[in-house]
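Late entry, evening session. Most of the bench is empty. Finally got around to the prediction I had been postponing all week. Sequence below, unchanged from the version circulated by S.P.
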Amino acid sequence: MSIKTAAIIYGGKSTEHEVSIRSARNIAKAIDSNQFNTVLIAIGKSGKWFLKTQDELNHENVVVESSTQLVLIPGAIQDQIISLSDQKSIGTIDVVFPIVHGTGGEDGSLQGLLKTMNIAFVGPGVIGSALCIDKEVTKRILNEAGIANSAFSSYLKSERHLIDFETTKAKLGIPMYIKPPNLGSSVGISKVTTEAEFYQAIDLALQFDRKVLIEQNIVGREIECAVMGNGDVKASPMGEVVTNQDSHNFYDYSAKYTDSNGSVTVIPAELDAVTQDKIREIAIKTYQALCCEGMSRVDVFLTPNGDIYVNEVNTLPGFTDISMYPKLWGAAGISYSAVISQLLQLALDRHEEENEVKTTF
């Protein structure tokens, strides 16, 4: 089998820039060099693209702009990415692992660009990415598919004057969660119980998005399930996130990434076989309803009486040292490196199928 060239694209303009770099480091280490050569492409906070070395990836906590800026040639059959300094191609890229979290990376924008460039890429395509990044749209699709999720209200920034605490409390109860619907990693999310907290949280969320999502609080265990596949889809064992309630009142950014004692993950989660099967079934149904391919992580709440509510779907889950997606597959006996190889192969398989579709009539 010939060795393919895989590019890891990381960084980006979103609030999850630093998390993306940490994910990229782990993916670069795990790629099987017997199957793939690796090219590193970083997107700075300005939006410019740069060719990077492994040493730069290892040591830069924020993408540093340099003389290795890249330009793109959409529509080219090969040599689609050119170095601006010497006008030479960086070589043909067979497949991309786009680990750019958040806005501009997992919202369909980058996926659309890669499709225009006719390059295979890991994870859902434009439609699945766009549906899942916007948590309000996700919830509407889930409701249409008959998949349980929390009650909610949503407002555009232009509708800020319509948002009322008492009306929302009567509909959703307290506490409630307020968030920017198009971000991940719990950025801009607040758990509120009072009127003062409510309006402060609305203003905070609208700093990060053009609309705000207000959700009912679901009391239950936070269970996560990794899903993988194109047509043939499989779901992993479950993992549970247990937040340290002494220091965090919910699973926020600090509990995830900066506070080493903020939370613990239990893999596999302590669940009976019937409940595990139900969660897998719901995770796969959710994945398919939202047009996901390649991979996604489906997060659910499991209530004390056994009800299961989908919380959210992460189409490009983290691959940091603490990230659940590779750990969940590890619990199924699939190594970190094997997970990366399978995801890259799924991307190549889908790309081949797409290129077989007729484009003339």
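Two things to note before I forget:
The first helix runs from residue 17 to 30.
The chain has three domains: 4-121, 151-216, 221-354.
Will write this up properly tomorrow.
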